[in-house]
Structures are given as structure tokens and as C-alpha cells.
Amino acid sequence: MRSVGHGCVSRSCRWSSAPSLLISFLHSNKMSEVENTFRKFAIYGDTSASGNDMTGKNFSKMCKDCGVMDGKAVTSTDIDILFYKVKTKGARTITFVEFQQAMKELCSKRFKGKSPEEALQAVYGLIEGKEPSSVGATKATKVGGVERLTDTSKYTGSHKLRFDKNGKGKGLAGRQDLTDNSGYVGAYKGAGTYDKMH
């Protein structure tokens, strides 16, 4: 059997209908943008990553951030199953070639009613030029009673002394009673004036 242009050797493959269109798309400028996006997501969260292989976690994040996973036609379970289907046995990551195979299998599920080539182009259109988002990275919540509890202007007693007027913590000075070794009693208004008078 001969290869049809995308790695499949079967003549009954649905991709064999228009291999020239598929090949021209895969080698176009769009494909380099998709590969750049793949590399950005591959190194996300791992400073030692080379960008050539992508973990399952980053593959799932990429599908979610780019809109490939819509929660209806394509769910997170579908993404996880597909990842383990295309990866090499025993490996924990996928290469860009395996990623392309995953997108070929995913596109018809995501864009039902389109031809395989149009669906693949649509999926790559969602992916190209995207970057990992860091939305929701540790922000203070303001719902319910939390805002009232974290408003330092409403603190009383010893807790009030731990913050300045702007609500910024005083650090160690606000947490411990520091002793005054000046020789004067606490809160004496004339502290430090003895030397000036004598």
C-alpha cells in the first residue's frame, strides 16, 4: 500500500479524498503559526521543557484556551482519551506530529457537518497565534462576607494596630510589642526633651 500524504496507508481513509489540499495547507504559513502555538503551550509551566514535546496537562490547557474544547461536542474526557490514543506507548508526552494526528481525529467531532479538510482548517484556525493564558492567578475574592472581613479599616482592638491607615500591614512592628528603652514612660509627650532643657 502507498502512503496518502498524511501518514495513513489505507486507501479507505477519509483523508485520501483530497490529499493535495491537505498537504498544501499543512505546509502553508498557517502551519508554522500552529507549530509556534504548540511550542508555547509545550513549555508553559515547565522552565526545563524544550518545546518539542507536550504533556497531557498542557495539551488539555491548549485545547481549552484555544476553544477546541467547547464542553459540548468536545469535552475534557475526549481530550484526555485522544492524548493517550496518539502518544507513543510508554511516553508521557506527544510530539508535534502526534499533535497533528490528534487534531485530525478531533476536527470532525468538533466541526460536524464539514468536510475533513474544512474541519481541520477550522481547528487550526482556532489554534494559530494563541498563547497560554494566566487568567485567575491568585486574586482576592470580593463576594459575600469576605470583603467585610478583609477590610482593615473596620478592624478593632489589637488587630487594628497591625495595619496603617492605608490598610498595609506594619510587619513585625504590628505583631509584637516593641520595648521602648528610652527611660521615659509610655505615651509621655515630652520624651526626648530633657537634653534640650539642660
Task: Characterize the structure shown.
The protein is an all-alpha fold and 198 residues long. Helix content is 44%, strand content 2%. The chain has 10 helices and 2 strands, in the order ααβααβαααααα. Strands 1-2 form a two-stranded antiparallel ribbon. The longest helix is centred in the middle third of the chain and has 15 residues, at 96-110. The chain is elongated. The relative contact order is 0.09. Mean pLDDT is 77; it is low at 1-7 and 9-23.
Summarize this, please?
This protein is mostly helical.
Name its key features.
elongated; 198 residues; disordered N terminus; 44% helix
Write the layout of secondary structure elements.
Blueprint: H1 19-26, H2 29-42, E1 54-55, H3 56-66, H4 76-86, E2 93-94, H5 96-110, H6 116-127, H7 146-150, H8 157-160, H9 172-175, H10 194-197
Antiparallel strand pairs: 1-2
Biggest sheet statistics: 2 strands, antiparallel
Helix content: 40-55%
- In what order do the strands lie side by side in the largest sheet? 1-2
Separate helix tally: 10
Global Rg: 30 Å
If you average the pLDDT, what whole number results? 77
Determine the strand fraction and express it as a percent band.
Answer: under 5%
